[in-house]
């Protein structure tokens, strides 16, 4: 890898460009330089190298094919098509050219034409693994997992340890819902390549998805025996224990993970969740606090502490940590709802209004956001503001509850005419709610008979 980054040809080429010199490079050398830049994703320099190369070797088919590849990377499809037409007669026996043609049609959304060029490439008996993967990918684009599976398997024949092919074989089996064949294939593969990390990972995932967690753990354990540094595999193994309700075993696995991790906040958070599920709130709080020591901005642990403190009856602490979590993630509407709830539970109605307003602003289609917002406004005596909110709410939701609320506001503001008009609308929409609403809003008891009499 170090040799790749310290490419002498590339250094010489860049020195030439920088100093405005003119060095001579062979065609093959320019190819190597262009490939380097393409591999590095530096398309502008690949383009520059192609132009320099063709200036010295204008008739080089190999450099023109590289130019074709660069044009595709630059998404200059008109120029790419012109060059493809120019090269077609003389380059049909060049695998790289056929691959570029396949990429051209793939990029333009014509997978069948792309497959045709890949099949022509296979006749040259070069790059078979790559070409079969390419064809398989195009069949995936065509939503044809049956043929995709066939070509991913053929790709594996040419490179049995190609992780990409193996992963996609399992993906296709899953798409085809052929689980028996999938595990038969995977077991056969593991018989030949017992130390394949990808295969054992797929084995574990296969059984995890089947909810056969003990068998999944077996697969993950084999993988960890091969590579004990696979941090993500510990997480998968722990997830199996969590799915089985074996919370303390999951904790043991997460604790093994901690020894391998540089950033530990998420793992401490997961340990805290396990202790919480296992009804061990003190240990849960301890883990969430460790998570926050590792990353003071980790709002997930902030909010989980709020839940635990609420369960323990520590409402003051629950509110504190909910506020902290919201301050770190204001856009999370679930957090805003929770904070509003805790404010209301603690009788801090005015403090809840900012959360409730954010909810109606960002989720106007949710009826209960409006209902709660207007209810709190009425509780603190802000009836005029409640009227404004409720009028906006009734434009979004033609619900009787809102009209009962609005009528109460008008009666509180001594606007009897509007109060009775809106109460009539509420009764029309849902008279069954009247008894509950009369208990909440005593003004309605005196007015409802007058409204009903007027209607008669």
TrEMBL record:
Instruction: Look up keyword Repeat and say if it applies.
Output: yes
TPR repeats mapped onto the chain: 197-230, 265-298, 400-433
* Keyword annotations from UniProtKB, A to Z: Repeat, TPR repeat
Q: Entry's InterPro entries?
A: TPR-like_helical_dom_sf, TPR_2, TPR_rpt, Ycf3
Record Pfam families = TPR_2 (PF07719), TPR_7 (PF13176), TPR_8 (PF13181)
Does the record's keyword annotation contain Nucleotidyltransferase? no
What is the official name of this protein in its record? Tetratricopeptide repeat protein
């Amino acid at each position: 890898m170090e040799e790749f980054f310290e490419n002498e040809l590339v250094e010489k080429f860049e020195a030439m460009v920088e100093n405005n010199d003119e060095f001579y490079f062979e065609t093959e050398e320019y190819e190597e330089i262009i490939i380097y830049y393409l591999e590095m994703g530096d398309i502008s320099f690949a383009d520059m190298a192609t132009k320099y190369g063709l200036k010295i070797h204008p008739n080089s088919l190999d450099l023109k094919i590289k130019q074709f590849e660069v044009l595709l990377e630059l998404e200059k499809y008109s120029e790419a098509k012109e060059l493809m037409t120019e090269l077609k007669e003389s380059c049909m026996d060049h695998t790289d050219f056929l691959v570029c043609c396949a990429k051209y049609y793939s990029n333009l959304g014509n997978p069948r034409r792309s497959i045709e060029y890949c099949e022509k490439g296979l006749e040259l008996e070069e790059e078979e693994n790559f070409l079969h993967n390419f064809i398989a990918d195009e069949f995936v684009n065509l939503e044809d997992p049956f043929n995709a599976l066939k070509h991913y398997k053929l790709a594996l024949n040419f490179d049995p340890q190609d992780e990409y092919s193996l992963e996609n074989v399992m993906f296709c089996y899953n798409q085809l819902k052929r689980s028996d064949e999938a595990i038969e294939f995977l077991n056969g593969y593991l018989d030949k390549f017992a130390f394949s990390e990808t295969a054992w990972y797929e084995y574990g995932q296969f059984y995890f998805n089947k909810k056969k967690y003990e068998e999944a753990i077996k697969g993950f354990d084999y993988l960890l025996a091969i590579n004990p540094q696979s941090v993500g595999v510990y997480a998968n193994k722990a997830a199996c224990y969590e799915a089985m309700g074996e919370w303390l075993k999951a904790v043991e696995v997460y604790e093994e993970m901690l020894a391998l991790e540089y950033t530990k906040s998420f793992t401490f958070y997961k340990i805290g969740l396990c202790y919480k599920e296992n009804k061990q709130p003190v240990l849960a709080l301890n883990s969430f606090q460790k998570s926050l020591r590792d990353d003071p901005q980790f709002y997930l642990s902030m909010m989980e502490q709020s839940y635990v403190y609420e369960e323990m009856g520590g409402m003051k602490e629950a509110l504190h940590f909910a506020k902290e979590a919201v301050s770190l993630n204001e856009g999370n509407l679930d957090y805003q709802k929770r904070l509003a709830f805790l404010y209301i539970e603690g009788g801090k109605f005015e403090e809840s209004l900012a959360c409730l307003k954010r909810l109606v602003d960002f989720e106007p289609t949710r009826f209960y956001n409006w209902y709660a917002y207007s209810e709190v406004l009425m509780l603190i005596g802000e009836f005029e503001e409640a009227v404004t909110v409720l009028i906006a709410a009734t434009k979004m939701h033609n619900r009787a509850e809102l009209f009962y609320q609005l009528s109460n506001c008008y009666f509180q503001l001594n606007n009897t005419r509007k109060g009775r008009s809106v109460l009539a609308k509420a009764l029309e929409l849902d008279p069954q709610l009247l008894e509950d609403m009369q208990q909440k809003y005593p003004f309605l008891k005196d007015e409802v008979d007058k409204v009903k009499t007027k209607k008669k």
